[in-house]
Amino acid sequence: LIDALEEIVDTVWSRVERNEASGRTVTLKLRYRDFRQLTRAHSDDQPIVSRERFRELGLILLERQLPVEQGVRLLGLTLSNLSDREATQPHPASEVSEPVQESLVF
C-alpha cells in the first residue's frame, strides 16, 4: 500500500504544480474488499506547498490504518481546500477549485 501511495502522491502533485495550487487538507480514502469505505483527513493551518509535506501527511494517515485486516480494493489521496500559491485566499469559483485527487483500484 505504501508503494501505491507513493505513485498516487506523484500523480496528484504533478497536477497541483501544473495548476500552481496549494491546499490545506489531505484526505485518505480506503475501500476494503467488502466495499466498506474509510476516509481520514488532516488539515494544516498553512497551505501545503511541497510534495514532501503532502507525502508525509498521506503516509501518516495511511500508517494509522495499518495493518489492514482484509484486502483493499481502492486507495485514494486528495488535496483539497485549495488556494493559489501566490496568495493565501481560496481560488474564485470560476477558477480550478475542485480537489486534486487520484485513486488506484486493486
Which features would summarize this protein structure in a list?
4-stranded antiparallel beta sheet, 4 strands, 106 residues, alpha+beta
Please write out the topology.
Elements: H1 2-18, E1 21-32, E2 37-48, H2 51-63, E3 72-84, E4 100-105
Helix pairs in contact: 1-2
Which stretches of 5+ consecutive residues score pLDDT under 50?
88-96
Beta strands, count = 4
Helix content: 25-40%
Share in β-strands: 35-45%
Order of helices and strands: HEEHEE
**Rg, nearest Å:** 14 Å
- Structural class, please? alpha+beta
Instruction: State the separation between the terminal residues, measured CA to CA.
Output: 10 Å
Average pLDDT works out at 87
Largest sheet: 4 strands, antiparallel
Strand order of the largest sheet: 2-1-3-4
Shape: elongated
What count of helical segments does DSSP give?
A: 2
Descriptive overview:
- With 106 residues, the protein is an alpha+beta fold.
- The protein contains two helices and four strands, in the order H-E-E-H-E-E.
- It has a four-stranded antiparallel β-sheet, with helices on one face.
- About 8% of the residues have low confidence.
